[in-house]
Amino acid sequence: MSPKKEPDDPNDMYGFSSDEEAAHEPLNPAAEALLKRSYALLDEIQSFQRSLRRENAENAVVLGSFANLVKSEHRTIQGLCLEAPSPETKRSSHSLSAVNLPFYEAVWAAAKSTTGITALHKTFWYQEKELSSKDQPGGAKLKRKKSSVVVDVVAQNGLQWIKVNLLTPKRLLFDIAKAGWEEGRLISDDEDDYQSSYSTNSLAISQLALTKIASTLVLAASHERVQYLHPSVYFIFPRLPPPTDKTPEVKAFIDELTSLGVHVQCGPPSPDSEVFKPRRISELVEDISTPFRRRSIPVTSPVNLDVSILLSLASDICNCKSIKLDPGFTPHEAITHQIESEKTEPFLVKHVWAVLEGRDLVCSQVVADRFKSIVGILAGEKEAERADLLMHPREDGSNVDRFQKLCEHPLPEKGLRLPVSILGDDSGEEESEVMKRIKAKLSAVNRSAFMGGWKAGLTTVTSNKTVARMVEGLVNIDEVGPDFYVIDAARSLVGYKGKKIKV
User: Quick check: 122 and 78 in contact, CB under 8 A?
Assistant: First the structure.
């Protein structure tokens, strides 16, 4: 018996090829074409997910819901491929026209044209506006209803909400007509050939479903804040031409959206666009996997450092690639964990250099004094040397060169500017209500670190997540609090002297 022959068609997706039967023409060529597109889309999304996992950044992007929608659509198209079109029924062609694949492709294209993606197909909840008593029977107020809205792409690290719609000029005219603007309208079968003998009816446009969705998104965005800023809402219409005088309906519709505070992109993303520019998967992953690039607003220069960052800069744990401990010395459990973490995720290289490089470094006098006090109690020999280089200038300006000799990792490409300077005294400055409220909750050292940087208009870099969360919680929705860059990890001095101290 001869060995079993492999299928003639390596791309046979259904296993139809066999010893007796060669691969044949697909039952539904139109569905087959869609299936190839859905394979390509699904493959690219899964490649993106794998790349994020390799960079330990899969939790940085909420992608599961969108990926599941694409998978479901893929299975639907697979089923249509097994259904031959029938002259007696239009079911197959109708099913194909109802396929959502073009929309998912457009959403993915929009995601790839921006940076700092944090989610696709994400639901946001918001409170609807409360109706006044005069609008209600009996004069009673209605409780505000909690509603939700879906954002297709959340980008720019949370500050950009993108809604994608495959609206065409012909469909826009139809919707306007349906909203009450039908007289005198000539709608051609050709989407590029449409005209109107009437001026645009703004009332009809304001009643369009998309206009109402835009209004809802703007309202929902007003309930969300990222680093004290509200997200901006963007609409992308890949199939809608840029508005011109020859397309008054499109122009009026776009004008209505922009009047609501929405940014609009018509047509596919352009390489010359300042906001939306096609990017490779590798570029997207690099943006997401680099913590510094996930920040929503620029970091200032100088940057203000708190005690936790100064300690990490001096620590043997993150400056040495390996640490040899004396047999009789048992470090604290937290220190052991930091040493183990450093093996897979170098703290300075992964988290610190990006935010410090090329920037002047400052700290308050209270922070400097506390840092020196801890160093005097806990620091090993090299840790004390680094601490001295951080805070005291050398006459020959050799702080950076000497620091590099004590650090087994390369210093940042744009340079590490040493020593750290001392911020001026801010005690005489007037304080706002939110400043007073936050100040009252902070310890003396944290008050000096956070309040000093805040009053100077600087970004404060910290590993103190507990204090950062507490400060954010004290800032009301209509207030702006201190700007801080929180590093989601920490490194301490090794504590060779076996003493414990509260930072």
Answer: no
Q: Two tokens at 217? A: 């998104």
Tell me how far apart the alpha carbons of residues 140 and 133 are, in angstroms, rounded to a whole number. 5
The neighbouring-strand residues paired with 124 are 149
- For residue 44, give the 3-state DSSP assignment: helix
Among residues 403, 308, 389, 391, the alpha carbon closest in space to that of 351 is found at: 308
- Residue position matching structure tokens 């300075």: 348
Higher pLDDT, 180 or 421: 421
Residue 376's SS3 state is helix
Q: Give the span between the Cα atoms of 389 and 134, in whole angstroms.
A: 69
Question: Does position 156 have pLDDT exceeding 80, yes or no?
Answer: yes
Instruction: Specify the DSSP element, H or E, that contains 164.
Output: strand 160-164
Q: Could you write out the DSSP letters of every residue in 220-268?
A: HHTT--BTTBPPEEEEEETTSPPP-TT-HHHHHHHHHHHHTT-EEEESS
Report how far residue 165's alpha carbon sits from residue 444's, in angstroms, rounded to the nearest whole number. 53
Q: Return the structure tokens found at 308.
A: 């936790």
E strand spans, 211-333 = 232-237, 263-266, 303-305
Instruction: Tally the residues of the chain.
Output: 503
Q: Over range 370-389, report the average pLDDT.
A: 95
| Residue 278 CA from chain centroid, whole number | 17
Give the mean model confidence (pLDDT) for residues 461-475: 93
**CB-count exposure of residue 45 (10 Å: 0-12, 13-18, 19+):** buried
Residues 371 and 387: beta-carbon distance below 8 Å:
yes
Is the Cβ–Cβ distance between 98 and 34 less than 8 Å? no
Residue 90 CB contacts under 8 Å (≥ 6 apart), including other chains: none
CA distances in angstroms from 380 to 188, 314, 316, 323, listed in the order given? 81, 10, 8, 12
Q: What confidence tens digit (pLDDT) does each residue in 165-204 have?
A: 999 999 998 888 887 644 444 444 454 444 443 444 667 7
Let me know: does 69 contact 121? Beta carbons within 8 Å: yes
Q: Measuring CA to CA, which residue among 150, 127, 146 is closest to residue 62? A: 150
| Reported pTM | 0.75
| Domain spans, the chain | 29-126+145-185+198-289, 298-486
